[in-house]
């Protein structure tokens, strides 16, 4: 199949003749193909935004080749296929149903850059087919399915890297080492923030599915809803059925760094205040949010702040993180990090260009040589849990008590029900992977 394939061929490829019977029970056994010694063949699922960037990134690496592009919107496939072909001197195959790529034994890895509601099922399917996975952040759409992703990675022995790229960035690794060195003193608070301007999406009526879009496949595990442009490309972030708000979108990057620096996993108590105040539009998620997390047996608090209406940056960084110690504090963002000592005395500053190339490099290297990647799925799961719990506390309007070992909310049945969702057949995330 080439970038110029006829629409008829694309639609035939996207068809699912046996409906619900094409489920997890019929997936092929994990491939016995050994880890590639030289070149990793990659399929990319979801090719707008991050998916497009990752497809171009992997196709430009000498030891990777993008062999499949997969998207439910056929209008996107041809143009990106041409760009990928130029970068790697070979054409990727184009499919609408990711299962066609997973059935190909020559594929080594799947990149999942879909909306959040597809992350878990695509990752689990890929692991069951013996593929490694690079899954965009947040790792999951809810807490329950995140744990299923960890289970799948471990059961099938797959490398599953989450797209929190800062885990591989040299200056973030450098600053985490500094925080843990004790030079800041005792760190009793970390703060992560998401401060930027998000435009209004307005109000839009339900309408017809655009030509060339397999909307049933796009919905996948999510409830059936009429097509609406404000629940589709990009705008899906702001709808609870498909996204996790900006706390799970941009905020999870800095939550991950704050949690990493503090050396904590799951919180015991969560408090949230906030609202949707900046725009009268179809967004369901908050634009203003402050969440505090405390952790068992840890004398530190993690604070998350979100302002999606602020045309200014906070302490030099639009999205950033701070570690406050008894001897000084550290401020960090993608452009670098800086220190402030006792009496507000400036200390050395470290500046670095930011790139996701080290993260892609780490993924390929772990596939070849083994070991856990820098943003292993379990680390990604713990950070996504922070976003999920902050959003649940916002939605129910009260503080939560969380049991991290059982991964459940205590004494609040309404909140606990939001830890997972019902899944639409035949796209159920399995309880046992």
Automatic annotation (TrEMBL):
Gene3D superfamilies: Dihydrodipicolinate Reductase, domain 2, NAD(P)-binding Rossmann-like Domain. Residues 207-428 form the Gfo/Idh/MocA-like oxidoreductase bacterial type C-terminal domain. GO terms for molecular function: nucleotide binding. Residues 41-163 form the Gfo/Idh/MocA-like oxidoreductase N-terminal domain. It comes from the Bacteria. InterPro entries: Gfo/Idh/MocA-like_OxRdtase_N (IPR000683), Gfo/Idh/MocA_oxidrdct_glycsds (IPR050463), Gfo/Idh/MocA_OxRdtase_bact_C (IPR043906), NAD(P)-bd_dom_sf (IPR036291), TAT_signal (IPR006311). PANTHER family: BCDNA.GH03377, OXIDOREDUCTASE FAMILY PROTEIN. This is Gfo/Idh/MocA family oxidoreductase.
């Amino acid at each position: 199949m080439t970038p110029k394939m006829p629409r008829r061929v694309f639609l035939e490829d996207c068809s699912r003749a046996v409906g619900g019977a094409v489920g997890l029970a019929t997936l092929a056994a994990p491939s016995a193909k050994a880890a590639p010694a030289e070149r990793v063949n990659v399929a990319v699922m979801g090719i707008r935004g991050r998916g497009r960037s990752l497809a171009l990134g992997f196709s430009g690496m000498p030891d990777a080749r993008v062999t499949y592009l997969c998207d439910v919107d056929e209008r996107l496939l041809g143009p990106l296929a041409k760009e990928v072909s130029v970068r790697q001197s070979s054409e990727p195959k184009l499919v609408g149903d990711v299962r066609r790529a997973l059935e190909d034994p020559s594929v080594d890895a799947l990149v999942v850059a879909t909306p959040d509601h597809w992350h878990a099922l695509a990752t689990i399917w890929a692991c069951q087919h013996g593929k490694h996975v690079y899954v965009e952040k947040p790792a999951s759409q809810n807490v329950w399915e995140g744990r299923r992703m960890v289970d799948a990675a471990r059961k099938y022995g797959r490398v599953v890297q989450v797209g929190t790229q800062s885990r591989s960035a040299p200056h973030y690794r450098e600053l985490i080492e500094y925080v843990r060195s004790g030079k800041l003193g005792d760190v009793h608070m970390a703060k992560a923030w998401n401060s930027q301007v998000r435009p209004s999406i307005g109000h839009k009526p339900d309408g017809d599915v655009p030509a060339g879009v397999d909307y049933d496949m796009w919905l996948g595990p999510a409830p059936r809803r009429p097509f609406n442009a404000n629940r589709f490309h990009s705008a899906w972030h702001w709808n609870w059925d498909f996204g996790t708000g900006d706390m799970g979108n941009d905020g999870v990057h800095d939550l991950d760094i704050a949690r990493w620096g503090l050396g904590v996993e799951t919180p015991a108590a969560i408090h949230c205040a906030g609202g949707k105040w900046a725009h009268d539009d179809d967004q369901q998620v908050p634009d203003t949010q402050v969440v505090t997390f405390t952790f068992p047996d840890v004398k530190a608090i993690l604070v998350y702040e979100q302002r999606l209406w602020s045309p200014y940056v906070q302490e030099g960084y639009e999205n950033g993180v701070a570690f406050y110690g008894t001897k000084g504090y550290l401020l960090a963002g993608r452009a670098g990090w800086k220190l402030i000592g006792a009496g507000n005395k400036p200390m050395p500053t470290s500046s670095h260009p930011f790139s996701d190339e080290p993260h892609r490099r780490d993924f390929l290297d772990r596939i070849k040589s083994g070991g856990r990647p820098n943003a292993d799925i379990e680390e990604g799961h713990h950070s996504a849990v922070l976003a999920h719990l902050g959003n649940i506390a916002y939605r129910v309007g009260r503080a939560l008590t969380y049991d991290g070992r059982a991964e459940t909310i205590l004494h609040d049945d309404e909140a606990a029900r939001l830890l997972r969702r019902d899944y639409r057949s035949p796209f159920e995330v399995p309880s046992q992977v």
